[in-house]
UniProtKB/TrEMBL annotation:
Gene that this sequence comes from: LRA
Species: Cupriavidus taiwanensis
Enzyme Commission numbers on file: 1.1.1.401
Gene Ontology process terms (BP): monocarboxylic acid metabolic process
Family (UniProt): Belongs to the short-chain dehydrogenases/reductases (SDR) family.
NCBIfam families: PRK07231.1
PANTHER family: 3-OXOACYL-(ACYL-CARRIER-PROTEIN) REDUCTASE (PTHR42879), 3-OXOACYL-[ACYL-CARRIER-PROTEIN] REDUCTASE FABG (PTHR42879:SF2)
Protein name: 2-dehydro-3-deoxy-L-rhamnonate dehydrogenase (NAD(+))
Amino acid sequence: MTPSDSREPAQRSAIVTGAARGIGLAIGARLAADGMLIALWDRDAGQLEEAAQALSAQGATVLAVPVDITDRAHVDRALAQSMEALGQPSVLVNNAAILGRSGPTLDASLDEWKRVFDVNVFGALQCAQAVVPGMVRRGYGRVVNVASIAGKEGNPFAAAYAASKAALISMTKSLGKELAETGVLVNCITPSAADTDIFAVYDQSQRAQLEARLLERVPMKRFVRVEEVAEMAAWLCSVRCSFSTGAVFDISGGRAMY
Ligand SMILES: NC(=O)c1ccc[n+]([C@@H]2O[C@H](COP(=O)([O-])OP(=O)(O)OC[C@H]3O[C@@H](n4cnc5c(N)ncnc54)[C@H](O)[C@@H]3O)[C@@H](O)[C@H]2O)c1
C-alpha cells in the first residue's frame, strides 16, 4: 500500500464539471459504470437535467447540480449540495470550458481573454480550492483537469483558449507537486479535436474550415471519440492510477509525441 491508494473510500463519489454534454457527460457515464456516485455540474440547467435523467435511466446514481464555476459562492453551494446527496467527493474532474471567439490574436480584446480565463482557468482553480482540501484531510483523491492539445501547441485564431489550456497544464504540474505526499493525485489530459458542441460558437463554414485544419494535423485522421477521452479519465480517476501526478496525458491520435 502507498499513501496514494491506502485511503480509497469504499463508496466513491465524483464531481464532473461541464457535464451536461460532450466530453464531461461521457466521463460522468464512464465513472458511473465504475460504480461511482456522480455529481454532474454545469451552468446549463436544462441540458443538465436531461443528461442526469439519461444516466439515471442506465442505472447510475447521479445528481444534477446547476452551477456557474466562475462564481465561488455557486461552487461552494454546489459542493455542499453534492456532499449532502452523495457524500464526500474523492474525484474531481475539471472539464467545463469555453472556446471563446475565433480571430486574429492581435485584434483580440482583453475582455474576451478574461472571459475565457474566467471559466477555463479560474473556474478550475476555484473548484479545486473548494473540493481538494477535503480530499487532503481524508488522505485520498484524484483530480483530472481536461486541458487540450491546444495548450501544448497553440491553435491559430484561438490564442485565449490555447493559452488558458497551457495555464491549466501548468496548474496541474504545480498542484500535483504540492500534493504529491498527500494521497491526492492531480493529472491532466490533452485531447485533440472531438466533434462536440464546443464548436457551436462558429457558423457552419467556419466550423468546416476549422475541422479540416484540425484533422489534417492528426496522424490518425479522425476526431477523438468522447468515450476514448472518458476511458483515459476513468483510469486517472481510479485507485489503479497510483504513481502519476502532475502529469500530462496525451490523447491525440499521434499528433503530439510528448
Ligand atoms: N471538443 C474538443 O475538440 C476538445 C478538444 C480538447 C479538449 N477539449 C476540452 O474538453 C472539455 C469539454 O469539451 P466539450 O467539447 O465537451 O465542450 P462542450 O461545449 O460540449 O461542453 C462544455 C460544457 O461546459 C459547460 N460550461 C461552460 N462554462 C461553464 C461554467 N462557467 N460553469 C459551468 N459549466 C460551464 C457548458 O455548459 C457545457 O455543457 C473542455 O475542457 C474542452 O476545452 C475539447
